[in-house]
Write the structure tokens for this entry.
Amino acid sequence: MNVLVTSISAKVPMLKTVRKALEKAGQGGLLYGADLDRACIGSFFVDRFWTSPRLHELAVDDFISYCRGHGITAVIPSRDGDLLYFAGHRDKLRAEGIRVMVSDKACVEMCIDKLRFFHKLFEDAFPAIPTYEDLSFKADRYVVKERYGAGGADAGIGLTADEAVQHAGRLRHPIFQPYVEGMEVSVDLYVDARGRVKGVVPRRRIRVVNGESHLSTTFRDGELERLCADMAVRLGIYGHALFQLIRDGNGEWHVLECNARFGGASTLSVAAGLDSFYWFLLESRGADLDEVPFERSARELTLIRHAEDRIQ
């Protein structure tokens, strides 16, 4: 079983986690990585590297030919921009013996579009943060962010109305939300091929840099875990996904978004027992996950992200 991770960039912790899952799954196999940049850092942490074309320029038959020629039977997209391509071709790839850890196209489109995501959750009575295309609502402070994709690098947070309008002018597709102050949380989970939630691990986002957790700690909250599991099933998630929420001073949850993929700090949840890549590889070869338990770590864990040199 050879595995391909797309858009690997500098996602070294993720690549190391996939490699461990591949070794745990047995049957040998090589770890392939793909990226537009042939000199990307991730290329030093895979067995084989593919300088791939842009996906919108890559015919699916050519992608299938590459996978066949290299014995690749499992694909893990790692970037929002990759999800729609693989979601759109998921069934065809599966018919060719190539499994992809991606939800269906309707689900991916819903998660990428924060405005549609809000309306979907609101209709289903989930506590989604109110989201608008303009400032037609009143709030003490505002958040302005891009409507599509994940990550908050371009977001304006805690702005006045005038500041929000100015910030929106710098974005391509701005949306507006009320600013809610509180504890930031990410919740990782895995939904199996039968649409059942295999496991859930919440983690506090203590230090966030460019939308990514650099200091994060796991915790337990049965109500929150059930909430996110219910949302994942309702959205039609498959594989690994993570929800981002804020808990305000009154203890109320506000759902910000759902990333239908593995997150930058999701390796912490894997260490806590959410063995998403291992489960995906097992499902890729037809295994029944009922025979594989979710063994949640008895102790809470902390992730500390830092730079590290590799000399070779």
In short: Residues 137 and 178 are 9 Å apart (CA to CA). The mean pLDDT is 95.
